[in-house]
Every structure is written in C-alpha cells, then in structure tokens.
Amino acid sequence: MSFQSVNQDWEGLAKQDAMWAILTNPDKAGNKWQSNDFFKSGLTEIQRVFSFLNENKIRCIDNNKALDFGCGVGRLTHALATHFDVVDGIDVSATMVEKAEKLKAQFNNNTYFFVNQNTTTAYTDNTFSCIYTSIVLQHIPQPQQGQYIAEFTRILKPGGLLIFQIPTKDIRNLSWFQKIKIKLQLRKRLAQLGIGTYHHMQMNPLPTTQIIEILNKGNCQILQHVYTNHTDIDFGGNLKFIDGRASKDYESSFFVVQKKIQN
Q1: Is 246 exposed, middle or buried (0-12, 13-18, 19+ CB in 10 A)?
Q2: H helices of 94-195, where?
Q3: Burial environment of residue 68 by CB neighbours within 10 A (0 to 12, 13 to 18, 19 or more)
Q4: Those residues with Cβ within 8 angstroms of residue 180's Cβ, 6 or more apart along the chain or in another chain
Q5: From its phi and psi, is residue 54 left (phi > 0), alpha (psi between -120 and 50) or beta?
Q6: 31 SS3 class
Q7: pLDDT, tens digit, 9 for 90 and up, residues 104-119
Q8: Which end of the chain is more exposed for a tag (fewer CB within 10 A), N or C?
Q9: For residues 183 and 176, what is the distance between their CA atoms, to the nearest angstrom?
Q10: What does the pLDDT read at residue 246?
Q11: Whole-angstrom Cα distance, residue 144 to residue 3?
C-alpha cells in the first residue's frame, strides 16, 4: 500500500468518525466517544508516561516546546501542554487538524495544529525539547516509518527526549484464510470500483534492529525500551507497561530516546 493511499484513508476515517479512528474502542464506534472521556484518556496516558520517566530518573533538557506527531484532534497534544510551555501537533489529515482547531476552544493552553503530509517537516534542526507519538507510526508503511524517526532525531534538541511507540513484531497466529483475506483486501478493491466505502487502518511492524540503526545515525541513545498494550483492541488510552510475551497481536515497543549532547 502506498503512502499516498494511507493519507487518503486517514482523511476518510477523520470525516467518518475522527475520535474512534484515533482510539478504536469497539464500543465507541459510530461517533460514541464523549469529548470529555476522550481527552481524559490522553491525560491518563501522558501522566503514566511521565510517572514512568520519573521512576527511571529520566529528565528532559527543558520544558520549552514539544511535538505531538500524528496529533489527530489533539487527544495527547493538550495532555502534553500540562508539561510543556508550547506544544505543536501535526497530522497528515486536514480534517483532523480542522477538528482539532475547533475543539481547542475548550482548553486554555499554547497548542498549535498543522497539516504535514510529507516525511520531512518545515522545522529547523534542534527545535523540540520532547517529541511524543503513540498509536501512529504503526499505521504508516515501513519505509516511511524509518524516515519519520530519522526526521524526529533531526528536529530534536540535544538532551531532548524522543518517546515513541511502534510495533516491532507481528505475533498473530493467522489461518491461511485470514492471510489471504488480508492480502486481497476485497472491501477496499470494491470501494475503488464504487461499491461501498472502505478506509483501511493498516498495521506495520518495524524491526528493532532497524530502529536502533536509525537512532544511532541520528546521534541518539535509547534510555528505555519496554513493551506496552498500545496495540490491544481494548487499549482505550489505558496505558500499561507489560511483559512483551503478554502481547496479543503485535509486540508493541515503547522507546524513550535521548539525543546526545555534543562536547
């Protein structure tokens, strides 16, 4: 699947049911997410992340500016704003960003939302004190996953933290029928012929060895590599740090990375 078609899928998902597309709880499909509950889930996730950082004595160089990559309608952007002076959110979907701007009125913070449909950004080197992204990279084709991670290392300040979640292994036990069904993507093919509508949320793991190579090239060191429940169907923003063997479908890796400070 091409990167362009992925962008189109997310624009379609944003128009259909933006909050559910971001947080796919089975009982919330059909525009059933309540705004308060949705944004509360973002606060819960970020609080647990920062508790994890504190427990491991990990500190960011400063609290100046953070980036929420794949911001959607701002679920994590506003949560990050409780820790940083300014937070930018970028997303591939113009509809997501439009909705984020409308929902922003209920918050009193310095958050800004932008559309970005390339694997590079307009930011200068060493812009952000912290970059955070979860349940985003997993939906991007593998080549672009690596390009984005490399871009993060460019725009991260020396001493800043890059915190990201990504599947690193597919551990599903699929039948031959399920594999064929996934391969053919019949519903998408029919939609392309004008029969029904379908927007696909693909899942793509990126091997840990490739991630380490990219981070090394970006002068970054891994401070923590643990596993989470981000890829579980009932995730719902209820972040848990788990044993990797407890993963259900994908090995969901959570990296805390720091850009090295040059002497």
Answers
A1: exposed
A2: 94-103, 142-155, 176-184, 186-192
A3: buried
A4: none
A5: alpha
A6: coil
A7: 999 999 999 999 999 9
A8: C
A9: 11
A10: 64
A11: 8
The pLDDT of residue 189? 37
Closest CA to 69 of 142, 1, 143, 166: 166
**Spatial distance between the Cα atoms of 180 and 137, rounded to a whole number of angstroms:** 24
Output b/e per residue, 78-93; b: 16+ Cβ within 10 A: bbbbebbebbbbbbbb
What tens digit of pLDDT does each residue of 132-148 get?
Answer: 999 999 999 999 999 99
* Report field, pTM of the whole predicted structure over 0.85: yes
Query: Do 220 and 258 form a contact (C-beta atoms < 8 A)?
Result: yes
Q: Which two tokens stand for residue 247?
A: 């993963």
14-50 pLDDT, tens per residue?
Answer: 999 999 999 988 899 899 999 999 999 999 999 999 9
Which residues lie across from 227 on neighbouring strands? 242, 253
Which residues of the chain form beta strands (DSSP E)? 65-69, 86-91, 111-115, 128-133, 156-170, 220-228, 241-242, 250-259
Which alpha helices (H) appear in 32-159, and where do they start and end?
Answer: 35-55, 77-80, 94-103, 142-155
The predicted model gives 204-230 an average pLDDT of 97
* Entry field: residues in the chain: 263
- Report which of 79, 80, 46 is spatially closest to residue 63, judged by C-alpha positions: 80
Answer yes or no: is pLDDT of 263 > 80.
Answer: no
Half-sphere exposure of 180 (CA within 13 A, CB side): 3
